[in-house]
Every structure is written in C-alpha cells, then in structure tokens.
Amino acid sequence: MNPFEDAEPEDDDPEDAEPEDGEPEDGEPEDGEPEDPDGPDPLLVPPQRCSTTRPTVHLVVEVVLAPGLHVPVAARLRYRADEPYTVHLDNHVDLPEPVTWALSRDVLLAGLTRPAGLGDMSVTPGHGPDRGHVLLSLHGEEADALLRVPAHALHAFLRRTECVVPVGCERDHVDLDALVRRLLDEGEDEDGDGDGGGAGDGG
To answer: In terms of CB atoms within 10 Å, which of 33, 81, 126, 166 comes out highest?
Structure first.
C-alpha cells in the first residue's frame, strides 16, 4: 500500500496542480512513448568537462578467429590530449609485451552507428550474433586482427575523450614542435635499424 496515495497537496500552488486531461506531466512520456529505464540517450547528452587529460579504461575484447569462434583478451583503451586524433588500443595487457594499435578517433566514433574506415582500419556496428559489439578490422605491417569490442564500453570511453578534446577542436591541442621532433627521432631510429638489422631478428 502506498502511504502517499491519499495525501493532499499542502497548498494551491499552480505549479503543483494536476495536469488537465490529455496533458502529460513534466518528465512523463507522451502516450505511446516507451519509458527509457536507462535515462536520456547518451548521444544527446553533451560531454562534460573531464578531470584528466589522459583517460584510460580496461576492458575485455574478443579476437575473432573464425565465425562463432572468439578468444577473449585483456585490453586497454588510452587517449592523450596531445595526440587528439588518436586512440591507442593495447591488447594482451596481461602479458609482458602488449600489442598496441593506433586508431583514428573519428573512425571509431563514426563506426558506432555505421560502417566506417578503409584500408588499415575499418569499424562496423555488430548485427545478429554480434549485436552489442563493434567489429574492428585492423591491418598492420606485422599482423592483422579482427576484434569484437563491447559497443557500450567503446562509446563511454569515446565520450570521455570528447570531454578532454571536443570533436572539431583537435588542432588546438596539437603540439607541432613535438610532432616534428618525434618524426625526426623515428626517422633516425629507422636509419639505425637499417644498418644493424631490425629488433627481434635473432633466433
């Protein structure tokens, strides 16, 4: 029994008055509209300010070996304000040498709702048995991978990155001097590897 069922309003404040017939109360859905138990659509809620410039989340992704055959692996998503276009995905974080992929944030965002990306990286929303996941197809110089990523976890993480760097404001966060230095350092490393052989060539 509801103890408030027979309670009368304390005053005649018009704000507390009951709505007329056919007029829904504030916050109640119109007739025919299902209530959303999870609250408002997160796509319609603007990102809030984030307390960190390097959001990180641990999750489990699945490596797709064949249709219906998936192997779960421990993974981590990372983002940095000084690399605003890139999301890093570390696979096998429980091993001494995780496998790291550099992913386009724009492609990940687009791939939540429609197929996106070409070449080295493509993202597709899952359907049927893959519903609730995002299929991430990756092609690198040394390895390829097809991953099933939980769509909710990926979406929540990408929203956190938007708190750090809103979409469209990436240029304001790029450190061009640091980028040039890093590219020069990588070029010098490649020249050195060419003289002495690549790492891991030994038996």
So the answer is: 81
